Amino acid sequence: MSEKKRRGGAGAGAASGSASKKPRVSTAASYAESLRSKLRPDASILATLRSLASACSKSKPAGSSSSASKALAAEDDPAASYIVVADQDSASVTSRINRLVLAAARSILSGRGFSFAVPSRAASNQVYLPDLDRIVLVRRESARPFANVATARKATITARVLSLVHAVLRRGIHVTKRDLFYTDVKLFGDQAQSDAVLDDVSCMLGCTRSSLHVVASEKGVVVGRLTFADDGDRIDCTRMGVGGKAIPPNIDRVSGIESDALFILLVEKDAAFMRLAEDRFYNRFPCIILTAKGQPDVATRLFLRRLKVELKLPVLALVDSDPYGLKILSVYMCGSKNMSYDSANLTTPDIKWLGVRPSDLDKYRVPEQCRLPMTDHDIKVGKELLEEDFVKQNEGWVKELETMLRTRQKAEIQALSSFGFQYLTEVYLPLKLQQQDWI
Amino acid sequence: MSEKKRRGGAGAGAASGSASKKPRVSTAASYAESLRSKLRPDASILATLRSLASACSKSKPAGSSSSASKALAAEDDPAASYIVVADQDSASVTSRINRLVLAAARSILSGRGFSFAVPSRAASNQVYLPDLDRIVLVRRESARPFANVATARKATITARVLSLVHAVLRRGIHVTKRDLFYTDVKLFGDQAQSDAVLDDVSCMLGCTRSSLHVVASEKGVVVGRLTFADDGDRIDCTRMGVGGKAIPPNIDRVSGIESDALFILLVEKDAAFMRLAEDRFYNRFPCIILTAKGQPDVATRLFLRRLKVELKLPVLALVDSDPYGLKILSVYMCGSKNMSYDSANLTTPDIKWLGVRPSDLDKYRVPEQCRLPMTDHDIKVGKELLEEDFVKQNEGWVKELETMLRTRQKAEIQALSSFGFQYLTEVYLPLKLQQQDWI
Question: Which reaction is catalysed here (chains A, B) (predicted)?
Answer without folding.
Answer: ATP-dependent breakage, passage and rejoining of double-stranded DNA
